[in-house]
Design goal:
By secondary structure, the chain is of the alpha/beta class. The protein is built from 13 helices and 17 strands. The strands form 4 sheets. The chain has a 7-stranded mixed beta sheet with strand order 4-12-11-10-7-5-6, sandwiched between helices. A 4-stranded mixed beta sheet has the order 1-2-3-15. The structure holds pyridoxal-5'-phosphate.
């Protein structure tokens, strides 16, 4: 009797939540991954913006194995130095003071921000959070309630109360949506799952101004766009270098190269008075003992990996590489002037190629994004579809010019065909 294939095992034993490609990957190195037949692929998805340093980076492997031999986990009832150091590093990157909480995923990091907003608004009965069309904030009940894309909500009613969605980059609509119940505004400075849509500088400045005028929290979901992908530690600073300061930020994905780790930062502005009229101190101390927690968050192991990833980005000057390689890829793609390309979007190494309509293949209706993703895969390159007509390029931050050129050659060939 022959052994079941991996596809058979998935079919029989794994809950089918993902529309997976029939591609089994077994090994990676740098910007390349290999399937079980030995075929190699240029990985311009990097696990959906996760593997910032590429696959099997020696610094990550060393940090992971050395720390695993020392101390993997202790309870958050005790102190561990790597967590404290990682918090200090991240607070330094944000550059506005404040403090960090560690968790395990992006959705969980956002959950922390929702709770922060509720706690902040509770003395005055404010709990609503405004989010934006095409946003994506994760798959927990809170996450799908915050996400404006309707498809993630279907069948899961009743959703968590208190999330409102307004058109992205529309300041007038945002202002109109604010009510006496509003506590916070949450946005992705560059929307990832929604098709690589950067916020405009005017929108970010206007959102900050509305938050100041109405005493609301400005929260940035930088889970996909943050920590170096745009060529800046803070993605919003790639759009407005100065003058916009958020009150909370969430991260995950690229923070630890694929080792599960999420985090959120809270600023130091004053939180205002409680319902008895006593001042509550800085916002970053509002979630006090007993208000929030998670078993694994900030373990010695994940914190060591996070520290290693962020330090390596610094040491290898990868913010600059993300800026130069990103600009090179973007302008080269624009210069191609191919009929298949409607526009090239994004900042740094968070790029989207929006595609024009394509003829059907043998009468099969697939979206342009899915079709291109499959054709590129067959040609030896991995990209990530986003919505119906955008393919995302999210390569490791340390890609070389030769790898960028290889990607451009493959994209040109497939898009021309
Ligand atoms: C902007 C954004 N927020 C939140 C999430 C959810 O993160 P996770 O899948 O780690 O829960 C994602 C994941 O794609 C994301 O892109």
């Amino acid at each position: 009797m022959s052994l079941p294939t991996t596809t058979d095992l998935y079919h029989d034993f794994v809950i089918p939540t993902y529309g997976r490609f029939d591609l089994e990957l077994v090994r990676g190195e740098g910007t390349r991954v290999w399937d079980e037949s030995g075929k190699s692929y240029l990985d311009f998805g990097a696990g959906i913006a996760v593997c910032s340093l590429g696959h099997a980076h020696p610094a990550v492997t060393k940090a992971l194995s050395e720390q695993a031999g020392k101390l993997i986990h202790i309870s958050n009832l005790y102190l561990n130095r790597p967590q404290a150091e990682l918090a200090r590093k991240i607070v330094g990157f944000v550059g506005l003071g404040g403090k960090v909480f560690f968790c395990n995923s992006g959705a969980e990091a956002n959950e922390g921000l929702y709770k922060l907003a509720r706690k902040f608004g509770s003395p005055t009965g404010r709990y609503e959070i405004i989010t934006f069309s095409n946003s994506f904030h994760g798959r927990t009940l809170g996450g799908i309630s915050a996400t404006a894309q309707e498809k993630v909500k279907v069948g899961f009613a009743p959703l968590v109360e208190g999330f409102l969605h307004v058109p992205f980059n529309d300041l007038a609509a945002l202002e109109e949506a604010i009510t006496p119940k509003t506590a916070a505004i949450l946005l992705e400075p560059i929307q990832g799952e929604g098709g690589i849509n950067p916020a405009t500088a005017e929108f970010l400045r206007g959102a900050r101004d509305l938050c100041d005028r109405h005493n609301l929290l400005l929260l940035f979901d930088e889970i996909q766009c943050g920590l170096g992908r745009t060529g800046d530690w803070c993605a919003w600073r790639s759009i407005v270098p100065e003058g916009v300061e958020p009150d909370g930020i969430s991260w995950a994905k690229g923070i630890a190269n694929g080792y599960p780790l999420g985090a959120f930062w809270v600023g130091k502005r004053l939180a205002g008075a409680d319902s008895e009229g006593s001042e509550r101190g800085p916002l970053c101390n509002l979630l006090g003992p007993g208000t929030h927690g998670t078993t694994y968050g900030g373990s010695p192991l994940c914190s060591t990996v996070g520290l290693t990833v962020l330090s390596t980005i610094e040491q290898e000057n990868l913010l600059e590489n993300a800026r130069t390689m990103g600009a090179y890829l973007k302008s080269s793609l624009e210069d191609l002037n191919l009929p298949a390309i409607r526009q090239v979007k994004g900042i740094g190494l968070m790029l989207g190629i929006e595609l024009n309509d394509m003829p059907l293949v043998e009468g099969v209706a697939v979206t342009p994004a899915l079709r291109m993703t499959k054709e590129l895969m067959a040609a030896g390159m991995l990209v990530i579809p986003s919505g119906e007509r955008t393919i995302r390029l999210l390569p490791p931050l340390n890609i070389s010019k030769a790898e960028a050129d290889e990607a451009l050659a493959l994209l040109t060939k497939v898009l021309k065909d």
